[in-house]
């Protein structure tokens, strides 16, 4: 058993780093702001070491139950601060501290010279600390507090460059949209709290997470504490919170906009912290979901639909980070679908491998931006020769994302698709079949958009980068794009940025083997399906056997992935290299050469070419406008429904009722004063007469009624 | 002389003074009316002292002068009040060239 203070230290060290940076370095020693990065890296390194120790001990079967510390006793319920350390927590600790550590090292290079670097690392410390606290929480209220802290720190980081209006708007959007989901989570907690009596009768604390699991299990005397519709609603509430954080449809719209933050932040959000929290939450309450079939079906279908729909959106994006954002949403959809299908181990396995290759892809995108000055793939191209390391590493990440055989993404995605194929979960077969179709379709699209990105970015000829984008925007009178720099220096990124990517690439290649999903009994001491067995031992009640490796499924998914890559090659790589320049582009090329005098010394950029997908007409418009979901939310829900009805009614109430009462009070006083003013004539004799009249009245009254008053 | 007759005289004096104080517009006349009211009160106080003070007390001490002492006080205060009042009247006259009370309504504002 690992000593409790050591487990707490995993979470407290980044927190301490946050306090030191924000309370000491930033206000007092801002000259030494660069130290803050090293401070955070040091604390995360220790956290990572402790996480590894915890994981190893746990894998050896060490006891891991820690008595919670009561914080607030509420009678039948108690809010505690405690550690819930099970295999899921241990894996998450490793992923969060490990990915965060690499991202921070990368940040040293990426954020070099930023004037607010201390603030950046302070937020990063808070972000990592809250996520570590979240996965350790043993109490649902404790978990909720960290949950909101994760939301807060993501808000701060997405809006890190708060002087850009688009970043401020994206931060607000992320905060508000995830908050909509959190309402569901909060309602679930409130429900549990108000039924504390029933829990207490069974000897359970309604806010202690293992007790909540227990409550959903049938008792010996028949019937569970938490069952039927109530259980389904609680599960759906929890899922609503998870959907908000994990960007599941229909709460996905914040995630692509969250690209406004610095790229390492995107990497962290997408790989380890923010979005993983949603999947983690559903995994944490999996014993509840298992007992609620309807909720599982909702999770599976929402996950499957999100996986597919987000992948279609990823096809047409021009912004390299947005492609990856939709890819993240899509991959999270895979995880959710897996959880919904009852494939607990595969879902977390995919979360684990995804953390590596998605962080790698994002850091690669940041590296590309470092060289080209833009995120717009229309202005990239041909970077392969300039930055070979980034190219190879991004290719590794991309192949892993697509799911090509020896890389980690293949193993985890394969387990999920196998689970959908077999359909042995608690859901109806039609749900499993629908999910299977959606997931296989998404695999095809994933391969296509990933390699569209690779070909557009690295192959062909260089199309001018940020300088060209700024010049084009000026020439056509469009507003200047934000986050674009004209200081492109086509070269490999510095070692401090490449090294973390290298580490992540090794993870992306090898992470799949901790599960050893093959036919070998034991690989370097790792027994077959080790990961799934290890993780599923966290699910105390009736976990399923992980299905064995299935050649048919593996064949299908590989074929689909290769088809996607081939399609992308045909559309983007081959045509672009060979095809003649179209007339329209030639005109644009003329402008380009004129504009290229605007201060970049490279060879004239290659002309723009129309995206072959633009021939899709209506479908292309639909996709590039993201199914008009933003318009639906902004234009219809917010402007029409919310502004007109909700805001209209509250506005009316405020104006007529609240203001009315205030105005009436003032009006009455005013009228009274207007009357009283008539009495003040300034005639002292009038006052005297009134006094005499009053005295006479008192006297008369006293004489008339005096005896009755006892005088 | 009975207590009643004294009180009647005092009441008549007081009424005359009150009328003057409330009805005359000349400040000097108002001050004079107020003096009349003071004197009505003095008369009442002295009369009560003479006729109503407890018999037992009078037998013990010989005579009771409480009312008379009050009257002396009131006369003193009235003198002071007149001095002050006339001062104000003079100041007012210098300022407005009028001793009419109806025109002295500046403090309303």
Can you characterise this structure?
The complex is a heterodimer of chains A (711) and B (109). Chain A is mostly helical. Chain A contains 28 helices and four strands. Chain A has helices at 4-28, 34-59, 87-110, 117-136, 140-158, 165-194, 196-201, 209-216, 228-246, 254-257, 263-271, 274-284, 286-291, 293-314, 320-340, 344-372, 383-386, 388-402, 408-422, 429-458, 465-476, 495-510, 530-536, 551-578, 583-595, 618-624, 629-679, 684-705; strands at residues 69-74, 77-81, 522-523, 526-527. Chain A has a two-stranded antiparallel ribbon. In chain A, strand 1 (69-74) and strand 2 form a beta hairpin. The N and C termini of chain A lie far apart (89 Å). Chain B is an all-alpha fold. Chain B has a single domain, classed as Helix Hairpins. Chain B is 77% helix and 0% strand. Chain B contains four helices and no strands. In chain B, helix 1 runs antiparallel to helix 2 and helix 2 runs antiparallel to helix 4. At the A-B interface, helix 28 of A face helix 1 of B.
